[in-house]
Structure formats: C-alpha cells, structure tokens
Design a protein that fits this description.
9 strands, TIM Barrel, binds ligand 9MR, 369 residues, eight-stranded parallel β-barrel, single chain, alpha/beta
C-alpha cells in the first residue's frame, strides 16, 4: 500500500475522492498554509538555493513559508571565493525572491570553519597568515557581506559551530581559533553589529539536545553577553533522527535555552529516518533499502507532533523555525553521511505533498494558550 494512503479507511477514502476528485485525497484548497497556522507564534523558514526557489519546490515555499535561509551561497567559500571577488548573484536572487513574496531572509553564515576559501588563511607565498591579517580579512568580509544585505537580512548567524563535540574540550580546533585565539569571536559579533545595526545576531550550533554541548553553548553566549558583546540569539540547528530524539531531552534543551532570555531560532530542522552518524562513509549493502517504511513514517509523524508541541510550549522564546531544505524531493541528507542514500526528513514528500507528519504539526496549533 502506498505510504500516503495508510491510516485512511476505504470508506473515508471514497468520500475524499467524491469530494475532491483528487487521487491524492488532498485538494490544494484543503491544505492549510503552515506559516498561517503558526502566524503570530513563529516564522516558518526553509533553506534554499538560487535554483530551487524557481523550481516546483518554490510553489511550496510560497504557500507555506515566510522566511528563507541560503543553504550554501552565503558561506565564505562560495560568496568570497577570491580575495577581491564576491559572488553576489546567488544571494541577490534569494533576497529578491524573499522581497517579492514578503518573506524574511536569515543570513547564514558570516564565519564558519567549514566551506572556507583556501586563500583566507594563506599569504600569497603559502605561509599561514598572521593573526592581524586574518582579523583584518574577517572584518572586511563581514563589512562587505553584512553591509551589502543591510536592511534585507533580519538575522545573521555570525558564528557557526565553534564548540567542540568532545565533552572534555571547549572550542573546536579551527584555523580561526589557532591563529586568532578566542578573541576573534567577540570581534566578529561587534563588526557584524556595526555593519548592520538592526540585524539580530546569532550563535548557531548542533547537538544542542546533548546536555554537555548545551552547557558549553550557554556558557559561551552568556560570557559574551556579560561582556556587552552584541549577541541576540541562539540558533538551535535541530538536525535530529527518529532513532535518537527523546522528548525529555528536547524538553530540557528548550527549557535551558529559554531560561537564557535570548531569542531562540530553530535554524536547520530535519528529522532523519536513518540513525545519525558523525562522519561521511561509503555506501554499504544495508543502505540500499527504502527507509520510508510504515514503521519509520509512523515514528516520524509522532515525533514531528512532539517536536512542535514543544515549540508551541516555548513559543514565547522561539521566534523562527527553519527547516533545512523544503521537501523530501531533495535533502542534504541524500548526500550525507552516505552519498546517494535517500532520506525523507521533511514535512512534504518527494511529490511535494504534505505528509502525515505535516498534519501532526498542524494539530499542535490547537494547543495555543
Ligand atoms: O546543507 C549544506 C550542504 O549542502 C553542504 O554541502 C554542507 C557543507 O558545507 O553544509 C550543509 O549545511 C550545513 C549548515 O550550513 C551548517 N550546519 C550543518 C548543515 C548540514 O551539514
């Protein structure tokens, strides 16, 4: 049986077909807009590329979403591939789409140690740059990028994933940290604020449900706040798996982050049908199965319901919920950690139709105070 038809009895199905004459049973008019359902609670966002906003997925965006994040084209290596060259056309087209459709635009990301351009850490003769030069390059980069989109980007991920997953280590060892020491963090927030004083500034990280990692995130942002550094919010990525996400952990996570008093954005939400893995690896025979089984889909429906019941509970702290990609037609998880292994982590299926998980999410709006 097609997975989309499960749970619908035969008689209900006949009624639906008579009513809507639509084999999928879901006429476009009967499907509520996600962003309308959650209006006045939080924004509903998706990460996008300059291409997919103009594909069929763009229609899903226009109906259900009111915030966009560039999945890749604003990262340092893409937007600033050479010392004096910026690639503006991709981000400009996303900005134009956001404007044309009355959507917000989240900036991702000013500083991240991944997807950095090769030239950034090197002198022209190949030696490692000095601390002063690297800081100067960071400053120029931030002023150029945040300056160009001043007034168009409402919130920036200023720093992405600087904290270690190793419980015994605070910061991840990155070229930024090795060359500049932790003081670069404070500086990049101050520069971002100067470049665009109205943008909300975020620290963004994953594995936020892990109590040790969470403590580090809270400690770092609290220290920055106490020093008067302009940081307004914490981005909780939310790359979760149906095999490991636990309600008690999510509850504790949101409670702790809400207690900081900072704005919370869920920045990269998806719920994988595969167990999470920290490293890329080759495909194995056991990966060649369809993970979108009834059991997995049922689990995903229930967990999406649970996740949004928590978001609704903490809606006073949460300003935006952004999904990482739009529909199951394409997800970064189709490539990671196993290239070519299909995942189905989102609320819309590969045919761009709402999944049962979508309805579970919509149901949570009933629980508004
Ligand atoms: O989805 C992004 C993927 O297309 C890129 O190849 C990858 C590597 O740069 O980055 C992915 O997005 C990441 C995001 O920028 C930061 N948090 C983790 C996301 C998934 O890796």
């Amino acid at each position: 049986m097609d997975i989309h038809l499960r749970k619908v009895s035969l008689s209900a199905w006949i009624v639906l077909i008579l009513l809507f004459g639509n084999a999928s049973g879901q006429s476009a008019d009967t499907i509520p807009s996600l962003r309308e359902v959650f209006r006045n609670k939080f924004l509903i966002g998706a990460s996008v590329s300059p291409t997919n906003i103009h594909s069929a997925e763009g229609e899903v965006l226009k109906k259900h979403f009111n915030s966009l994040t560039a999945e890749n084209v604003m990262k340092m290596g893409v937007i600033h591939p050479e010392p004096n060259r910026y690639a503006w056309s991709g981000p400009d087209s996303i900005a134009a789409f956001a404007r044309a459709h009355g959507m917000k635009f989240r900036g991702h990301t000013l500083v991240w140690h991944k997807q950095t351009p090769n030239w950034l850490f090197r002198e022209s003769d190949g030696r490692t740059v000095s601390k002063e030069k690297l800081l100067q390059r960071l400053k120029e980069h931030i002023f150029a990028v945040a300056g160009r989109y001043r007034g168009q980007i409402y919130a920036w991920d200023v720093l992405n994933e600087a904290l270690s997953d190793d419980p015994g280590t605070f910061y991840t060892r990155t070229p930024f940290m090795e060359i500049c020491g932790e003081e670069f963090i404070e500086k990049i927030f101050r520069w971002a604020h100067e470049a665009d004083p109205n943008a909300l500034l975020f620290y963004n990280d994953y594995r936020e449900t892990d109590p040790v990692k969470r403590k580090k995130i809270i400690e770092m942002v609290t220290r920055l706040r106490d020093k008067g550094v302009p940081i307004h919010g914490i981005g909780l990525q939310g790359h979760w798996s149906i095999h490991s996400l636990r309600e008690d952990e999510l509850e504790a996570c949101l409670k702790d982050f809400a207690a900081t008093g900072l704005i919370l954005h869920i920045t990269e939400l998806d719920l994988s049908l595969w167990p999470g893995e920290p490293e890329r690896r080759e495909i194995r025979p056991e990966d060649n199965v369809n993970a979108y089984t009834m059991a997995n889909a049922n689990r995903q429906d229930a967990l999406y319901g649970m996740i949004f019941s928590k978001f609704v509970k903490y809606a006073d702290a949460i300003q935006a919920v952004t999904f990482w990609n739009i529909t199951d037609r394409h997800s970064w998880l189709d490539e990671w950690p196993v290239r070519g292994r299909k995942d189905h982590p989102l609320l819309f299926d590969a045919n761009l139709q709402p999944k049962f998980a979508f309805w579970k999410v919509v149901e949570q709006a009933r629980n508004y105070k």
